[in-house]
Specification:
Strand 4, helix 5 and strand 5 form a beta-alpha-beta unit. This protein has helices spanning 2-30, 32-43, 83-95, 106-113, 127-130, 151-160; strands at residues 56-57, 63-65, 100-103, 118-121, 137-140. The radius of gyration is 28 Å and the shape is elongated. It is mainly α. The chain folds into two domains: 2-42; 80-160, 3-Layer(aba) Sandwich (Rossmann fold), CATH 3.40.50.
């Protein structure tokens, strides 16, 4: 009688262990790509924070902070299907421009590679490493960083550029 109970118990334990092993193989091997993608999506989740503020003036009435609309294009390779087609479409759109203005980013490099004259607002990255190798590209830098560059500086450089 005891041997029969032990046999039934061993069978139950084996079935239970087999079910766990089956699910483990399913999760780790069969569905690996799905869960890896979902995990990566959880890890990287950009959330732009738009400041809700009005105009800020100093005590002498000079404008310190203004609300300026800004637009940003982000391409995340593992969230984009057809990355080559997306970049080709971006290149096609850039070719329709007479010039470009951007910060030190991949899109600015693409514009420079297409031969467009451009102005790059240069941040704190190393110019000798990351500057696009193109003579029609002008870098604007400021000791206070990219936020210290004024609209007037950009418009002044744009006015000096040929073919714009």
């Amino acid at each position: 009688m005891v041997e029969r109970r032990l046999t039934v118990l061993a069978l139950i334990v084996l079935l239970w262990g087999g079910a766990i092993l089956k699910n483990l193989i399913k999760l780790q091997i069969v569905q690996h790509q799905e869960y890896a993608t979902r995990s990566e999506a959880n890890r990287i989740k950009p959330r732009p924070v738009v400041p809700a503020r009005g105009l800020i003036y100093d005590r002498k009435g000079r404008l310190l902070a203004d609300n300026v609309p800004a637009y940003r294009l982000e391409v995340t390779p593992n969230e984009t299907t057809g990355i080559k087609e997306t970049l080709a479409e971006l290149a096609r759109l850039l070719q329709g421009c007479s010039a470009f203005i951007g910060h030190d980013s991949g899109i600015s490099h693409l514009g420079a590679a297409l031969g467009l004259p451009g102005i790059i607002l240069w941040g704190e990255t190393r110019e000798e490493v990351w500057r696009p190798p193109h003579d029609r590209v002008v870098l604007i830098k400021n000791s206070e960083g990219i936020n210290g560059i004024t609209v007037e500086q950009i418009l002044s450089e744009l006015g000096r550029m040929p073919d714009t």
